[in-house]
Amino acid sequence: MCRILGVSRAQYYRYRSPKPSKRRAEDEDLKQRILRIFAEFKQRYGVMKIHHELNLELQPLQRRCSPRRISRLMKELDIHSVTVNKWKAASASKTKVEQRPNLLKQDFSTTGLNQKWTADMTYIQTKRNG
Questions:
Q1: How far apart are CA 68 and CA 26, in angstroms?
Q2: Cβ neighbours of residue 41 under 8 Å, at least 6 residues apart?
Q3: Which residues, at least 6 apart from 71, have a Cβ–Cβ distance to it below 8 Å?
Q4: How many C-beta neighbours within 10 Å does residue 19 have?
Q5: Going residue by residue through the chain (130 aa), what tens digit of pLDDT does each one get?
Q6: 69 within a domain of the structure (yes/no)
Q7: Measuring CA to CA, how many Å separate 68 from each of 50, 72, 124?
Q8: Measured between alpha carbons, how far is 55 from 49 in angstroms, rounded to an integer?
Q9: Inside any domain, residue 5
Q10: How far apart are CA 18 and CA 13, in angstroms?
Q11: 111 within a domain of the structure (yes/no)
Q12: Rounded Cα–Cα distance for residues 26 and 73 (Å)
């Protein structure tokens, strides 16, 4: 039958009962470790931080793993780190400052130093500027 199919006996039996290769078995082990590290750090760690943590784990076993391999495995697992955009203050040229009425009748005129104080709260993020 092997002659008719044009394959060797070894290929036929390898096809009939496939065993995972050493590399594939290592990948499955690494996937489990990556998922555990990813969950342990609340899905915030990316490839490089997972690479660092994973190599710390693998060091006693005298094994190493490259960032590229971790990246490939993370793509296979369809996981990626959670990223949050940093808040940036809106520039004056993009937004128009709205003039509001002085409801508190604030009087900031003084006759000397350190008589009246104000607080600058323009750094607080709101829905309008964020």
A1: 15
A2: 49, 53
A3: 47
A4: 8
A5: 778 878 888 888 888 888 888 999 999 999 999 999 999 999 999 999 999 999 999 999 999 999 999 999 999 999 998 887 887 776 656 666 677 777 767 777 778 888 777 776 666 666 665 4
A6: yes
A7: 11, 6, 40
A8: 10
A9: no
A10: 8
A11: no
A12: 11
CA 58, CA 26: separation in Å to the nearest integer? Answer: 12
- State the residue for tokens 């990223």: 83
Within-domain flag for 59? yes
Number of domains in the chain: 1
Q: 40-47: long-range contacts (C-beta < 8 A, 24 or more apart)? A: 42/82, 43/79, 43/81, 43/82, 44/81, 44/82, 45/81, 46/80, 46/81, 47/71, 47/74
Query: Which pTM does this prediction carry?
Result: 0.56
Secondary structure element (H or E) that encloses residue 4, with its range: helix 2-5
Neighbours of 37 (CB within 10 A): 19
Domain holding 48, by residue range, is 20-77
Amino acid at 89: A
Q: What is the pLDDT of residue 78?
A: 95
